[in-house]
Amino acid sequence: MDPTQPADRIFEGGTLLTMNERQPSAQAVALQGGRILAVGTRHEVFAFQGPDTEVVSMRGGTMIPAIVDDDTSPENVEQEPQGTLEPGQRANFVVLNGNPLTVTPRAREELRVMHVVKDGQSLYMADTEAAREDAPIFGEDLFLDESGWLV
Question: Could you tell me which residue ranges the Amidohydrolase domain spans (predicted)?
Answer without folding.
Answer: 82-124
